[in-house]
């Protein structure tokens, strides 16, 4: 295997790329860089003329903090993490190809959607970053949902902004700019206060015709809160393919403090992780969808017609091209599953037979296949944070079972995997009621790396076939690199056409159809899961967080 075809991190692309061609592309700036700030990792991904081939990757780990009952990240950690991920990418490029990049053809930044980053006229941060994970905006979300006639979820930026208004927070009087994490990083790199339409759709409702903020709803908010000019506060909206500025000298120094990186690269509109997930799974056309599983889990379904009714379980957002999407977003994904895997890994070490993290996950996932279809009566709730779809203001992870349940490792692990999909399945049942149809559903995220396990259980949970790419990409960072390449070489194609013709034309996927026993077993599990949410609520009400009292 040549250096150009070695796995890059999680990458398993086996397309042969001549090394001289790669070196020439890197030195000539004929490459596209994608950076994504996820909830636990910041990743950088480099692609060339063939956008389906990952040339190099870099990453850095970070974690949110729970400070004064607010989930947050510091801006200092944003930049130390971005710089570390970029440095790791450059080291990977040098190790593989013996060259160091000085420029790129295009750059794109994506990050966790929603949340609240507020700045004053002197570009000073007014309050700590409030991430999507916070669920303290109930009053504002309810008021805006009634005002707009559109579901406004707790995590949306406008909900955070309006809650600050409702609570009469002093910083509101000093507001000059409100953005998302991706919008903030892009602003610092380019000087442009812009946002991709997909990320913007998690700030404020988008008009499907104009593909920018809904003017009628903006006017309604202006009548409600005359002191705030949303048009001035929110970023300008751009659609995929539109240039979003260039990397400035200051931005280049922020990204690469060594000074090797030169300014001038064209930039793509900054996007949210939901949008890059759609791109990474070729799910931007009507009747396609994808599930992304990480710290959170969400499903995106591109609509062919508007929904008939307002549903609190469903967000109406858009693709990076501005097409309407129904989003089922759950604050809690695979973190609790990972915590249990970490405990089992520690057990192996304590027992004198340490195994790698990958082996722990592989073993536990394979064991889950031996579990009963309904997990033997064992229930697992993965709620580390509040979960609006489940009606929970805070999280209390639980494992619950009846005395006659069958507690085996196989049933326990199947319950844990089912638990990742539990709240998602509740939301997807709402789309079933709306008669939303799908031609294909794709899945991506680390939990799908063990072939045929999480993918099979998700197919059973959704009652629909689920596809996973056979050649794993770098997920959202790769999707953002593809969006950057679309700006540089889209050549007038639609985003869907560009993905079909230039990115996924030779891609292969494994598709798993739902097994009847899994469908029936998960349905039984979900009925118990829904009934057991009362126990979750009781735990929230009766068990305080460490260091707090009621």
TrEMBL record:
Gene3D superfamilies reported for this sequence: 3.30.420.40
Pfam families to which the protein is assigned, alphabetical: FGGY_C, FGGY_N
InterPro entries (alphabetical): ATPase_NBD, FGGY_C, FGGY_Carb_Kinase, FGGY_N
GO molecular function: kinase activity
CDD domains in the cross-refs: ASKHA_NBD_FGGY_BaXK-like
Keywords: Carbohydrate metabolism, Kinase, Transferase, Xylose metabolism
SUPFAM superfamilies assigned: Actin-like ATPase domain (SSF53067)
Domain Carbohydrate kinase FGGY C-terminal: 290-486
Family per similarity comment: Belongs to the FGGY kinase family.
Entry protein name: Sugar (Pentulose or hexulose) kinase
Organism of derivation: Conyzicola nivalis
């Amino acid at each position: 295997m040549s250096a150009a075809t070695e796995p890059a991190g999680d990458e398993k692309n086996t397309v042969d790329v001549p090394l001289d061609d790669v070196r020439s592309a890197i030195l000539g700036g004929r490459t596209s860089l994608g950076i994504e700030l996820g909830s636990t990792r910041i990743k950088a991904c480099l692609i060339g003329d063939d956008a389906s081939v990952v040339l190099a990757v870099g990453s850095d780990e970070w974690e949110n903090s729970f400070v004064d009952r607010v989930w947050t990240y510091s801006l200092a950690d944003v930049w130390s993490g971005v710089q570390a991920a970029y440095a790791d990418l450059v080291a990977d490029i040098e190790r593989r190809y013996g060259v160091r990049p000085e420029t790129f053809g295009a750059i794109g930044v994506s990050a966790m959607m929603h949340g609240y980053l507020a700045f004053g006229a002197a570009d000073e941060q007014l309050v700590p970053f409030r991430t999507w994970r916070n669920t303290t905006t109930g009053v504002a979300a309810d008021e805006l949902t009634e005002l707009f006639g559109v579901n406004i979820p707790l995590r949306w930026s406008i909900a955070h902004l309006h809650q600050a208004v409702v609570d009469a927070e002093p910083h509101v009087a000093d507001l000059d700019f409100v953005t998302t994490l991706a919008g903030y990083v892009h602003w610092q790199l380019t000087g442009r206060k812009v946002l991709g339409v997909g990320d913007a759709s998690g700030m404020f409702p988008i008009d499907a015709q104009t593909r920018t903020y809904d003017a009628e709803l903006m006017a309604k908010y202006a009548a409600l809160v005359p002191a705030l000019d949303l048009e001035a506060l929110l970023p300008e909206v751009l659609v995929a393919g539109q240039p979003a500025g260039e990397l400035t000298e200051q931005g280049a120094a922020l990204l690469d403090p060594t000074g090797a990186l030169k300014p001038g690269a064209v930039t793509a509109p900054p996007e949210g992780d939901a949008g890059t997930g759609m791109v990474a799974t070729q799910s931007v056309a009507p009747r396609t969808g994808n599930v992304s599983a990480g710290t959170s889990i969400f499903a995106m379904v591109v609509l062919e017609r508007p929904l008939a009714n307002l549903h609190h379980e469903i967000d109406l957002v858009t693709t990076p091209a501005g097409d309407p999407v129904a989003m089922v977003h759950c604050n809690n994904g695979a973190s609790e599953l990972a915590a249990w895997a970490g405990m089992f890994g520690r057990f192996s070490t304590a027992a004198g037979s340490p195994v790698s993290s990958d082996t722990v996950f592989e073993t536990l996932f394979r064991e889950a296949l031996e579990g009963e279809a309904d997990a033997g009566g064992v229930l697992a709730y993965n709620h580390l944070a509040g979960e609006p779809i489940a009606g929970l203001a805070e999280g209390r992870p639980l494992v619950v079972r009846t005395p006659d349940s069958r507690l085996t490792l196989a049933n326990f692990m199947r319950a844990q995997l089912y638990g990742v999909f539990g709240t998602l399945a509740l939301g997807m049942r709402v789309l079933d009621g709306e008669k939303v149809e799908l031609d294909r559903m794709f899945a991506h995220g680390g939990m799908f790396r063990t072939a045929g396990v999480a993918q099979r259980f998700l197919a059973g949970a959704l009652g629909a076939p689920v596809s996973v790419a056979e050649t794993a990409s770098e997920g959202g960072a790769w999707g953002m690199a593809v969006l950057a390449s679309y700006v540089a070489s889209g050549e007038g194609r639609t985003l869907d056409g560009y993905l079909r013709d230039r990115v996924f034309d030779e891609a292969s996927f494994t598709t798993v159809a739902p097994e009847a026993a899994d469908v029936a077993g998960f349905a039984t599990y979900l009925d118990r899961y829904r009934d057991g949410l009362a126990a979750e609520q009781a735990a929230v009400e009766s068990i305080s967080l460490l260091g707090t009292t009621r």
